[in-house]
Amino acid sequence: MRMLEKDEEEADIQVSWQDQQNINEFSKYNNKLQLLEESYDAKKTEKEYLDDLTSELEELELTDEEALVKYRIGEAFVSLTLEAAQERNSKAKEVLEEEIEQIKSQMDDAVEKMDALKKVLYARFGNAINLEKD
């Protein structure tokens, strides 16, 4: 009995058309997951900003309810009553939370499909394939 050289070990593995399709599908889900993670992080940061804004609006409520506040809509700031600003902020948070849940669901789906493909590919190729993130 002898140890196989690394080149000999890899040379014995034949990649079928179905194997290549599985590898391509794994790669597709991996890229999708990466984009979803970036989007998820951006949405979480935006939610933190809205939470901070909620705190600021609550503090303003203690001072003067009649005062107008500057509220950012897109690239512009508009003057709104405190109540209108709080309503907009509340609606924006609800929409953002729904978007975060959708992204999280898509991420979970992609991870589930990647795990299934990992099992198939590792069973076929063993240590000759690396599907883990660095």
From TrEMBL:
Keyword Kinase assigned: no
SUPFAM superfamilies linked to this entry: Prefoldin
Single biological process term from Gene Ontology: protein folding
Coiled-coil portions: 26-120
UniProt xrefs under InterPro entries: PFD_beta-like, PFDN4, Prefoldin
Keywords: Chaperone, Coiled coil
GO cellular component entries: cytoplasm; prefoldin complex
Pfam families in the cross-refs: Prefoldin_2
Ligase as UniProt keyword: no
MF-aspect GO terms: unfolded protein binding
Function: Binds specifically to cytosolic chaperonin (c-CPN) and transfers target proteins to it. Binds to nascent polypeptide chain and promotes folding in an environment in which there are many competing pathways for nonnative proteins.
Subunit relationships: Heterohexamer of two PFD-alpha type and four PFD-beta type subunits.
Family: Belongs to the prefoldin subunit beta family.
The name this protein goes by in its record: Prefoldin subunit 4
